[in-house]
Amino acid sequence: MTATLIDGKGIAQEVRAEVRAEIEAWCGAGMPRPGLATILVGDDPASAVYVGGKQKASAEVGIEGSSYELPADSTSEEVERLICELGDDSRVSGILLQLPTPEHIDGAHLTTLIDPSKDVDGLTPVSAGLLAKGLPGLRPATPAGVMELLRRHDVPLTGSEAVVVGRSDLVGKPVAALLLAQHATVTICHSRTRELPEVCRRADLLVAAVGRPQMIRGDWIKPGATVIDVGINRTPDGLAGDVAFEEAVQRAGLITPVPGGVGPMTIAMLLRNTLEAARAQAGEAAPDLAVKT
Description:
Elements lengths: L3 E2 L2 H21 L6 E7 L3 H17 L2 E7 L5 H13 L5 E4 L9 H6 L12 H9 L7 H12 L8 E5 L6 H10 L3 E5 L6 H6 L3 E4 L17 E4 L3 E3 L2 E3 L4 H4 L5 E2 L7 H19 L12
């Protein structure tokens, strides 16, 4: 068996085109243009590239971007003040604080200060609580991207057994909650999970988000399973996912490559979140992503 590849790059382009068309229609109806504010503290080259990519993608779909670059010696109070100002600015639909921040600044704490209605990263405690309670709200972009890939490939989730390897607040926990909302039976695994290969072999859907290159071996995968590899690890041989791809592709039914799988979906869903935030702030109902029992 050779798995079918999930073209994350192609699907991300489809999402971007849809967001662009919806923004054109939204603004054409006289509604305010969505705005995305990014905050970068310090001069980390990788972070600067990420922020630049988000602003470029925003401009391409018609979102009004504003980039705030603060020096590395900025104080927490200065960043906090900016976050509050952006929260009060009606022109800003979404706020994104690029992590990591310099060591003397508590980025995790500052993220909690973002107005939840503008939390397009879906990382504030309020956003996490809404997701856990199954209430409408903004979802973390990468888990939302995973769900979009599954939806566009008509992967059956109701009654299926899903295994998530990784329990981070950024990916593991929220993607598990989103899968529960679609009636999957979900197991979350981590470094202390006993007999991890055996647990993975039960999965109709396996989501790898552990941050260890090629940790998930091919013989851990149930024949015909869907494998979503969220990992992006830099190795001497280049980028590698959390799944041993060359082994896994011989057993899986569907699989995401690295690169070109989940990665491109993150920015695409960030753009979607920014539009949804603008709609909610204008009084439209938030998308119903409630967890069903």
